[in-house]
């Protein structure tokens, strides 16, 4: 639920992201969790690789912005954009693709003014810094984030967007408020590790103009790709299903932790979405979110 609007039944999300044949990142991490929540997904792929780039080697095409635009135009020609409840975007290969995505958001909003735009502003992370092409960080801060209703940055991305460090809870709250000042009404901060938190925990912070909530889960000793993509999808899905931000945050964190726990037990670098699929709908352990603002 956002701005008092509850949506239930017949939900559709247009998801514009990368895809892989092997493993789960981008649309390959977002579509299945949303489907398990009972939401129809219209995936538009921006690349189709053999596997995610974390392996260091991969094959497959990057779709030109014009090709992605053609797919999006074709969907529009089916006359279904009025039934689209949200647009979800993730990694953007270049600024031209970003412009295509924002164009699609505009057409969806024209057909359905209540549709949401959830932008996962993928740019970089702690340790690696930026890993996107030049111009993308500026495009995210100046064009994509201001156009979004919901944004889901990790801690590194939050700090860039806010222009300030987020090393304590107070810092993170102030940074989230600064990002809301750019336009979005809801900010979900993922992979939050702050100095004033307990050891062995990782957190998510969800902030709106009405308040903020924090949830922590045990920190697992693994590094995977795609968890952020699944997180953004689940959080958006729960909001569209009419759940409040506090409940959406708790459910999302609990499901993602269950998936990562299954991944850790299996000793694999690919998140185990299929093996842990029941946890996407009904996580075995619920980590409660607490109000912090």
UniProtKB/TrEMBL annotation:
<feature type="binding site">
    <location>
        <position position="120"/>
    </location>
    <ligand>
        <name>ATP</name>
    </ligand>
</feature>
<dbReference type="InterPro" id="IPR013749">
    <property type="entry name" value="PM/HMP-P_kinase-1"/>
</dbReference>
<dbReference type="GO" id="GO:0005524">
    <property type="term" value="F:ATP binding"/>
</dbReference>
<comment type="function">
    <text>Pyridoxal kinase involved in the salvage pathway of pyridoxal 5'-phosphate (PLP). Catalyzes the phosphorylation of pyridoxal to PLP.</text>
</comment>
<keyword id="KW-0067">ATP-binding</keyword>
<dbReference type="InterPro" id="IPR029056">
    <property type="entry name" value="Ribokinase-like"/>
</dbReference>
<feature type="domain" description="Pyridoxamine kinase/Phosphomethylpyrimidine kinase">
    <location>
        <begin position="115"/>
        <end position="268"/>
    </location>
</feature>
<dbReference type="Pfam" id="PF08543">
    <property type="entry name" value="Phos_pyr_kin"/>
</dbReference>
<keyword id="KW-0460">Magnesium</keyword>
<comment type="similarity">
    <text>Belongs to the pyridoxine kinase family. PdxY subfamily.</text>
</comment>
<comment type="pathway">
    <text>Cofactor metabolism; pyridoxal 5'-phosphate salvage; pyridoxal 5'-phosphate from pyridoxal: step 1/1.</text>
</comment>
<keyword id="KW-0547">Nucleotide-binding</keyword>
<dbReference type="GO" id="GO:0009443">
    <property type="term" value="P:pyridoxal 5'-phosphate salvage"/>
</dbReference>
<keyword id="KW-0418">Kinase</keyword>
<protein>
    <recommendedName>
        <fullName>Pyridoxal kinase PdxY</fullName>
        <ecNumber>2.7.1.35</ecNumber>
    </recommendedName>
</protein>
<keyword id="KW-0808">Transferase</keyword>
<feature type="binding site">
    <location>
        <position position="229"/>
    </location>
    <ligand>
        <name>substrate</name>
    </ligand>
</feature>
<dbReference type="InterPro" id="IPR023685">
    <property type="entry name" value="Pyridoxal_kinase_PdxY"/>
</dbReference>
<comment type="subunit">
    <text>Homodimer.</text>
</comment>
<dbReference type="GO" id="GO:0008478">
    <property type="term" value="F:pyridoxal kinase activity"/>
</dbReference>
<dbReference type="GO" id="GO:0000287">
    <property type="term" value="F:magnesium ion binding"/>
</dbReference>
<dbReference type="GO" id="GO:0005829">
    <property type="term" value="C:cytosol"/>
</dbReference>
<dbReference type="InterPro" id="IPR004625">
    <property type="entry name" value="PyrdxlKinase"/>
</dbReference>
<feature type="binding site">
    <location>
        <position position="157"/>
    </location>
    <ligand>
        <name>ATP</name>
    </ligand>
</feature>
<feature type="binding site">
    <location>
        <position position="18"/>
    </location>
    <ligand>
        <name>substrate</name>
    </ligand>
</feature>
């Amino acid at each position: 639920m956002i701005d008092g609007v509850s949506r239930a039944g017949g939900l559709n999300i247009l998801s514009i992201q990368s895809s892989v044949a092997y493993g789960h990142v981008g649309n390959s991490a977002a579509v299945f969790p949303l489907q398990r929540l009972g939401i129809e997904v219209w995936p538009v792929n921006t690349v189709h690789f053999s596997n995610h780039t974390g392996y260091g080697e991969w094959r497959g095409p990057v779709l030109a912005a014009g090709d992605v635009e053609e797919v999006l135009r074709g969907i529009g020609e089916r006359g279904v954009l009025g039934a689209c409840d949200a647009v979800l975007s993730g990694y953007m290969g270049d600024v031209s693709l970003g412009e295509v995505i924002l164009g699609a958001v505009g057409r969806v909003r024209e057909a359905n003014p209540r549709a949401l735009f959830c932008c996962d502003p993928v740019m970089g992370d702690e340790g690696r810094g930026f890993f996107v092409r030049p111009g993308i960080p500026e495009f995210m801060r100046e064009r994509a984030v201001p156009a979004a209703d919901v944004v889901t940055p990790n801690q590194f991305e939050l700090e860039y967007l806010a222009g300030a460090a987020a090393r304590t809870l107070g810092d993170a709250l102030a940074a989230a408020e600064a990002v809301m000042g750019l336009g979005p009404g809801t900010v979900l901060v993922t992979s939050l590790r702050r100095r004033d938190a307990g050891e062995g925990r990782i957190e998510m912070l969800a902030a709106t103009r009405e308040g903020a909530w924090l949830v922590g889960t045990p920190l697992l000793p693994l590094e995977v790709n795609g968890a952020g993509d699944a997180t953004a999808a689940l959080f958006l899905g729960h909001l569209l299903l009419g759940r409040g931000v506090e409940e959406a945050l708790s459910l999302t964190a609990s499901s993602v932790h269950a998936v990562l726990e299954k991944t850790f037990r299996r000793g694999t670098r690919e998140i185990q979405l299929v093996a842990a699929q029941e946890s996407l709908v009904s996580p075995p352990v619920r980590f409660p979110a607490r109000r912090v603002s």
